Amino acid sequence: MQAKVINLENGEAGEIELDDGIFGLEPRADILHRMVNYQLAKRRAGTHKVKGRHEVARTGAKPFKQKGTGRARQGSWKAPNHRGGGVAHGPVVRSHAHDLPKKVRRLAMLHALSSKRADDKLIIVDTASLDEAKTKGLAAKLKGLGLSSALIVDGMEPNENFVRAARNIPMIDVLPSQGANVYDILRREHLVLTRAAVEALEARLK
């Protein structure tokens, strides 16, 4: 399919051929959902922790004799039913990551790109580069393009001035082509790709 290419001044810069097998699929929400869950679970720290009954600093002696007190029998002050005792079935340090087949991860990337194309939220720009790292100037260019929430993906090495200028603009992210991922694509309203990014993504996903 043919797609229009513009520059940062919102002027026409020709056209580009997009691969139908990458940008022309019918988006599947179930695959995207699985991939987002996979990414979010993988980045969780998993450092939550509470003390069990074998870890709390309390005496191990029997609280009172077994019979004759009229009270319920107790074996330890460390039991979860006592104030200051251990927590029953509490969280422990662990990894939340789970497996997802590589084919499904690749397919999710295809559907994420296709979903932006289907929603008319995909913008192709000629280049994403600036002569100087000025946030004010870049913010004005993005406003002219109608971008308030966007992921901008460049080639293997994004322009340093562009990256620095975009750093202080809320809801604007810049990634190299190898860093493009499903979660970051879906969390922003628009996806902006440079010509170099399109070539790199098609080479990566074919």
From TrEMBL:
InterPro entries xref list: Ribosomal_uL4, Ribosomal_uL4-like, Ribosomal_uL4_dom_sf
Organism superkingdom:
Bacteria
What segment(s) does the record annotate as region Disordered? 63-93
Q: Which GO terms describe its molecular function?
A: rRNA binding; structural constituent of ribosome
Please give an example of a GO cellular component term from this record.
Answer: ribonucleoprotein complex
Whom does it interact with, and what assembly results?
Part of the 50S ribosomal subunit.
**Entry function:** Forms part of the polypeptide exit tunnel.
Q: What protein am I looking at? A: Large ribosomal subunit protein uL4
- Organism of this sequence: Minwuia thermotolerans
